[in-house]
Specification:
- Its EC number is 6.3.4.15.
- This is Biotin--[acetyl-CoA-carboxylase] ligase.
- InterPro entries: aa-tRNA-synth_II/BPL/LPL, Biotin_CoA_COase_ligase, BPL_LPL_catalytic.
- By secondary structure, this protein is α+β, with helices and mostly antiparallel strands.
- Helices cover 26% and strands 29% of the residues.
- The protein folds into two domains: 189 residues, BirA Bifunctional Protein, domain 2, CATH 3.30.930.10; 42 residues, SH3 type barrels, CATH 2.30.30.
- The protein is built from five helices and 14 strands.
- The strands form three sheets. A seven-stranded mixed beta sheet has the order 1-2-5-9-8-7-6, with helices on both faces.
- The mean pLDDT is 92.
């Protein structure tokens, strides 16, 4: 049995979206921090800006976690994405001995394929963050993907091994809690350095695409609000918010 000490650990046979269900419960009840909703079958999982997450029954991790980062100023909310991303890649390394990377802003990539996605929905109350609903989909034991998602990959496809989902979830929640504590004690420089060093395509020039077309550039930095700055081959800096930039794969 799971030993992770979530105040509420709710398992549903099927849900359209764990994030949506957690927010519905929040509207009715005051849930404690670290409450978790998990389902083996998420039928309409959501990604960033309406993207759909494919997940076969009983094959992957699909869950949502409640955090209450009231100590964090709203303009620093991207730190939640940073710490969750780092916890996922640390878990993949521990469980499967695979080096994963963080594709800005919060996809988890192994080589040039997507192993996990994160959807964080924050609520602001006055001048503080009230809560964060952290939705995570991690491809674990799925052998075949049938949707039109461009580049999914599972741990099974990489290692030809099946993984215990309960143990994997417990380890991931423990790693998130550990990373979250670093944020609570204001170790922002440590988080920034680890996130930067874990970025997908952090070294060298790569192809990207914005509304003006494709270009080659290298990653310069990501600021505290999550904006990405690239430097192109002409030495010009280009700054992007979420969904303003596409990573060109295999160009």
């Amino acid at each position: 049995m799971m030993t992770y000490s979530a105040p509420e650990f709710l398992v549903y046979p099927e849900l359209q979206s764990t994030n949506t269900e957690l927010k519905n419960l929040l509207a009715k009840n005051k849930l404690a921090e670290y409450s978790v909703i998990v389902t083996p079958h998420q039928t309409a999982g959501r990604g960033q800006v309406g993207n759909v997450w494919e997940s076969e029954l009983n094959k992957n991790l699909t869950f949502s976690l409640l955090l209450r980062p009231t100590f964090l100023a709203p303009h620093l909310q991207f730190y939640i994405s940073k710490l969750v991303s780092m916890a996922i890649i640390e878990t993949i390394k521990q469980i499967a001995n695979i080096e994963a990377k963080i594709k800005w802003p919060n996809d988890i990539y192994i080589n040039d394929k997507k192993a996990a996605g994160i959807l964080i929905e924050n609520s602001i109350l006055g001048t503080k963050l009230d809560y964060s609903v952290v939705g995570i989909g991690l491809n674990v034991n799925q052998e075949i993907f049938i949707s039109d998602a461009p580049n999914p990959i599972s741990l099974w496809q990489l290692t030809n091994e099946h993984y215990n989902l309960e143990k994997l979830l417990e380890r991931l929640l423990e790693n998130i809690e550990h990373a979250y504590h670093q944020l609570e004690v204001n170790r922002l420089s440590l988080i920034n350095n680890e996130y930067h060093n874990s970025l997908y395509r952090i070294s060298g020039y790569h192809w990207f695409e914005d509304n003006k077309g494709k270009f080659e550039a290298c990653i310069d930095h990501i600021n505290e609000m999550g904006l990405l700055t690239l430097v192109d081959k002409e030495g010009q800096k280009r700054e992007y918010a979420f969904k303003e930039l596409k990573f060109v794969i295999n160009d």
